[in-house]
DNA sequence: CTACAACCTGGAGTTAACTCTAAGTCAAGG
DNA sequence: CCTTGACTTAGAGTTAACTCCAGGTTGTAG
């Protein structure tokens, strides 16, 4: 699979894919004899995971750390598990904050829509937002 | 309430609070005669909301836009509602991605922990991560 | 064999969101 | 009054994560 095809498949730029490889967010991608990237299933799996975890706000540094541990072999399985658990906690925390924001948004939207219907804006709590 | 007290209450730096005010993420904060910030309930409500929405990944630009609309008066209620609804959709999308990442993490953690117990790492799908 | 598009690299530039610095002002204790 | 510490501003600096660019290479179509 060419870089272009991977770009289209995951809606990501070629620059970002090369950047991920360059800094180690994903391991070195398979190349053709001429040196052109030719993504295999395994390369694509790394790309997919990188995008997934980045989308969840996991920092690039953490993904690099994971790849390093992975490449260091089975002796790092403990460390990898810990890293993943830490990431899990961080993402859970973040998601909690998203839920709080959604509640707040729903409350505000509800009030504005009520104001729309009745033509009157009421402030229960002395301030907006 | 002094800036320091607000910092402590929300675990945020004074620099960030001043920055939010400077760029318009929150409206101008109440001041003492001497020009020192003295946060009132209303100011604090804006701060709290700003932090909440920033924590949910809402960009500073969007918060500034909302404050501008708010300050422009009741004629912008439609626009405000639309902005909030857009924010809601964006946050819902993001949260979906967090859930996908969590699933992936749980799967990986589960496999690593199994490997821990049995001493054997098995790859169902031909690749890790 | 020649276009020509798609690819390559190394390195510089951009963007969002802070974060820090310098130089000065305010306010409470002695 | 004087010190001392918290506060003020304007503006520069930092960081993460891309994003772009220049100059060169690869590979396919005619």
The counted number of beta strands of chain A is 0
Rounded to the nearest angstrom, the distance between the terminal CA atoms of chain A is 49 Å
Q: State the low-pLDDT regions of chain A, or none.
A: none
Average pLDDT taken over every residue of chain A = 93
What is the radius of gyration of chain A computed over CA atoms, rounded to a whole number of angstroms?
Answer: 22 Å
Order of helices and strands of chain A: HHHHH
The CATH topology label of one domain in chain A is: Multidrug-efflux Transporter Regulator, Chain: A, Domain 2
Main sheet properties of chain A: none
The CATH class label of one domain in chain A is Mainly Alpha
Helix content of chain A: 55-70%
Instruction: Work out the oligomeric state of the chains in this entry.
Output: homodimer
Specify the overall morphology of chain A.
Answer: elongated
Number of helices of chain A: 5
Structural class of chain A: mainly alpha
Based on the structure given, which CATH architecture of one domain in chain A is correct? Orthogonal Bundle
Which two chains touch over the largest interface? Answer: A-B, 47 and 47 residues
How much beta of chain A, percentage-wise? under 5%
Characteristics:
homodimer; 129 residues; Multidrug-efflux Transporter Regulator, Chain: A, Domain 2; elongated; DNA-binding
Topology:
The structure is a homodimer of 129-residue chains.
Chain A (H helix, E strand, L loop, with lengths): L2 H8 L3 H10 L17 H15 L4 H12 L5 H42 L11
Chain A binds a DNA duplex (30 and 30 nucleotides) through helix 2.
């Amino acid at each position: 699979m060419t870089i272009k095809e991977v770009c289209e498949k995951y809606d990501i730029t070629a620059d970002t894919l090369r950047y991920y490889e360059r800094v180690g967010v994903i391991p070195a991608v398979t190349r053709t004899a001429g040196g052109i990237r030719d993504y295999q299933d395994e390369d694509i799996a790394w790309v997919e995971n990188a995008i997934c975890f980045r989308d969840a706000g996991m920092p690039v540094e953490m993904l690099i750390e994971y790849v390093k541990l992975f490449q260091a072999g089975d002796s790092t399985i403990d460390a990898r598990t810990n890293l993943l658990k830490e990431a899990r906690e961080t993402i859970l925390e973040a998601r909690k904050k998203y839920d709080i924001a959604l509640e707040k948004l729903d409350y505000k939207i509800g009030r504005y829509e009520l104001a729309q219907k009745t033509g009157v804006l009421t402030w229960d709590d002395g301030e907006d937002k």
